[in-house]
Amino acid sequence: MGQGIGCPEKSRKSEPALNQSMKKAEDGEEGREEAVERGDKQLRALGGVADLNNGAIGLYNMGLSCCLNSLLQVFLMNTHFTVILRRIRVPTVPIEQKKSVPYQMLLLLEQMQRSKRRAVYPQELVSCLTWHNLKLFVQYDAAQLFLSLWNLIKSQITDGQLADRLTTLYTIWVQEYLVCQKCSFETRRDSNMLSLPLPMFNSCSQRLKTLEDSLRCFFQPEQLTDNNMCLCEQCERKTPCLQGMRLTCLPHTLTLHLKRFYYKKSSWTQKISYSLPFPQSLDFNQILTQEQCHPDAKEKVSWDDVKCTYGNSHTHWSETAYLLVYMRKNPQ
Prior knowledge:
Largest sheet: 6 strands, mixed
Order of helices and strands: EHEEEHHHHEHHHEEEHEEEEEEEEEHEEE
Oligomer: single chain
Strand content: 25-35%
Shape: globular
Distance between the termini: 26 Å
Number of strands: 20
């Protein structure tokens, strides 16, 4: 997971990424016309992700690429991401341009903005991803594909400041801790992730009914006893411990991964598609305890106009969304 950097500026409100992309950013940075040199020509990206007078431009399926297409739309509908994309250093050698994922995404963004059709073919980008071993005609897990695509983008951005901005935009910071139950000695380790993998069942295999329940379950500490005891540096022996994770800092773009697979003791895997409603607002101070929430993350994060649900009685499992992306509102 890349390098560690400072926390992004905190803001009180957030909203779904799709809504954020449909309006101009307040700081005006996204609203200006950006130009990126491409040889002796200028590649121009005009403010938004698509020409909103024509509606959002879609992507054609090129062979089980529906998961990839959805992720590309998630990236390209994020105006803060496209601001970073427009500032990349374009490779000067044609073969390197063909292998550059950020550059090919920029070309696709340009095509989506300027096309008068309802959808375009992302063949150049798909060819580029294939060169990096992301093949067509393969059914990918969206969360894993999201991680692979993000890592490719970041590794190929040569400008260090832009790479840092990309990290700040998506990275969730947490603190892992281990507390000895005999002497209360605590060890801590800071870490980060691109998405929170939220469970659909608790430790007793009971179904979780709300997004808040999933978040509480994820941050619920675990008792390590018997054969799972850990070595305490202060006691100098293995002792019962409490292992958990604290939320340290939320990014501007928060990705929640609902774990749709349930593994039973018989090694049988079940795909989950039952309904999990999302609230209109999330207050982490109400969801997490003081122990689970670092002071830097003690702020209200509101979610406006969340209309989606995870599965329902009328939706087939293959039509169920489980990778959720939300953005802060008024990030400054």
